[in-house]
Specification:
Length: 235
């Protein structure tokens, strides 16, 4: 019988981040950004840059692509009409790519299948716009895995705000202390901490190119199967 990692043994809800935690979506995101920039007669950004910019939702990603990076977003305010136009172009292009180059990270499928068979609630909490999420889950046969799915635009606030996590805890009538968030970004760890969730970090995602240890999650696991004490496989 699979068991949860000792630090998670009280957990009744596991909430997962998507990009950089379950899936590597950057190849498609980078292609969509570069195709958007090309439409606007701007030079390509490339995958290395885009990998650093992902994590605060699609509007921030576009602000970074159009202004030259993190810390420059204010140069294009959220309500700027050029930004709105580029953002909607990007969303359509990203949609048209159908996640063809997006992959699950190693261990994700087996771990989720094992967790699904346990007495736990499972949720997905991503900053990605909701419209893309059902298609991605279906693409990987994970459409029946999660009891609740929140996108970056499902609520007025997104991570690092704790609101999406508190929403989940309320929805399942659970104390945050028996809930955990597993993510690749400091925004996940900050949201978890602010919500009173257990924070679990994975080091292989994006986190703006910085080590996730700096955000001091309660637990760091090198791959998702380490959520399970015996790694989810029969002895
Ligand atoms: O869309 C993003 O910026 C990242 O989404 P995530 O919250 O699933 O990592
Ligand atoms: Mg992420």
């Amino acid at each position: 019988m699979a068991e949860l990692h000792p630090l998670l043994q009280q957990a009744r809800l596991l909430a997962f981040d998507l990009d950089g935690t379950l899936i590597d979506s950057v190849p498609d995101l980078a292609l969509a950004i570069d195709l958007t920039l090309a439409e606007l007669d701007l030079p390509a950004a490339g995958e290395t840059q885009v990998r650093r910019w992902v994590g605060n939702g699609s509007l921030k990603l576009l602000q970074r692509a159009l202004t030259g990076g993190i810390g420059q977003e204010h140069l294009l305010p959220d309500d700027d009409p050029t930004l709105a136009q580029a953002h909607s172009l990007f969303l359509d292009i990203y949609d048209s790519l159908k996640g063809e180059q997006t992959r699950l990270y190693p261990g994700v499928r087996e771990t989720l299948i094992t967790l699904r068979g346990m007495d736990l609630k499972l949720a997905l909490v991503t900053n990605k716009p909701y419209r893309f999420v059902p298609g991605i889950l279906e693409h990987f046969g994970l459409e029946h895995t999660f009891d609740q799915v929140l996108g970056g635009d499902s609520l007025p606030q997104k991570k690092p705000d704790p609101a999406p996590l508190l929403h989940l805890a309320r929805h399942f009538q659970l104390s945050p202390t028996v809930c955990a968030l597993i993510g690749d970004s400091r925004h996940d760890i900050q949201a978890a901490r602010a919500a009173g969730f257990i924070s679990v970090g994975v080091p292989y995602g994006y986190n703006h190119g910085e080590p996730l240890d700096d955000a001091a999650p309660d637990l760091m696991i090198d791959s998702l199967n380490l959520l399970l004490d015996n790694q989810g496989f029969p002895a």
